Amino acid sequence: MLFSSVTFLYLFLPVTVLAYFVLPKAWRNAVLLGASLLFYFFGEPVYTLLLVFSSVSDFAHSLYIERHRGEPRAKTALISSIVINLGMLGFFKYADFCVGSVNALLGTSIPALGVPLPIGISFFTFQTMSYTIDVYRGHVHAQRNLATLATYVCLFPQLIAGPIVRYSDVAAEMHSRKVDLSDAYLGTRRFVLGLAKKVLIANAMGELCAAFRATDGPSVLFFWLYAAAFTLQIYFDFSGYSDMAIGLGRVFGFRFPENFDYPYLSRSVTEFWRRWHMTLGGWFRDYVYIPLGGNRVSKAKWLRNIAVVWLLTGLWHGAAWNFVLWGALFGLLLTVEKLWLGGHLARAGRVLPHLYVMFVVTVSFVIFNADGMAGAAHDLAGMFGLGGVPLLSAQALYALRSYGVLLAVAIFGATPVTGKLAARFAASKTGAKLTVVLEPLVMAALLAAVTAYLVDGSFNPFLYFRF
Prior knowledge:
By secondary structure, this protein is an all-alpha fold. It has 2 domains: about 5-175, no CATH class; about 185-265 and about 350-465, no CATH class. The protein contains 18 helices and no strands. It has helices spanning about 5-20, 30-45, 50-65, 70-105, 120-135, 145-155, 165-170, 180-215, 220-250, 270-275, 280-290, 300-315, 320-345, 350-370, 370-385, 395-415, 415-425, 430-455. α2 (about 30-45) crosses α6 and α12 (about 300-315) crosses α13 (about 320-345). The longest helix is centred in the first third of the chain and has 35 residues, at about 70-105. The mean pLDDT is about 90.
């Protein structure tokens, strides 16, 4: 089920919220667990059993680990839990990738399994692994109620596209949480804004990307329009989903971690990755990079640690070699910045470092969204006019005229300027009075516009459902 669907907005969510607040507080976890399983079942009926199995497996492993903490058998149980989680992720996400790679390398014709990818498996396996690891480390106590742990694992607001919420983030709230009208309103506002980002901006950028793919007259200008559109689409799509998840979490009494902090303002790739998909970066830092030794090792091992993290980051996003290349590119750039370039960027002012980051990020997302390595090579060649691609085309100029204003709005919206202006207006004496009336009206108008788009539009899946 999609957040950006009429069914979710006007049936599933109202019924869930009503049951959550009308029924006794003692039933709230049960309401969320039932709603979350139904939410996942709506899109993945069979794989709902996988979600339940993951919850039961990590529940049993964590209890065993806590009971035998300090003994070798606790470490054995931790390894067992990790192997099960990574085994599920590896089978469903990477089996066909491995088969295809072996066939390409050895010239064999091993048939692909053709197993569909369970939605959200990359997210919920990382969450359950972090829980079991934290129990092993003694950072959290093992949850002794299976239904409570299953509620955490299956929690529908962030189940299928993040942010990656660790059990330690919500442990106290799983047992006791309060929601007042202010929380409900702020959560709803955050949800509506995220929904508008997804439907009104990301989907429109997706239409421009689709128009580029459908054209029979590509040009350098059209390749760059596509690159800019996808760079904006993936930001508004993914950050919009995170906004919706964080907003829904607040409605139900949870405070999920932030996942984006205006990454396109960055002046280094290092800063970009502190602002983009922050919960994933934090996960790899705490559960891979630091356990490998971080930067407190020899230079050779430190370079190895960076390489491992970014190889895994690329593979986490997708089972294809262009994702490996994408991760390797960022690993290389981060290494170069730490060893040499970072100091020069710090002294280069604001404009040049920002242009450098946006160039790198835009090129990287073209690789990210390509159809394999051949597709990445084709798109990159087109961006730089190789292979006889003309500079301009009638289709590109038409697309620029059609989407130019929206591109400008999206670029402006990827900065905090709008939020700062709204906050400054609300802080003024007159603005404070008007905001009380205007803000709900703006939210209602956005919801109406989104609804009209959804009723009249086509299927609009979130990009990260593919990864």
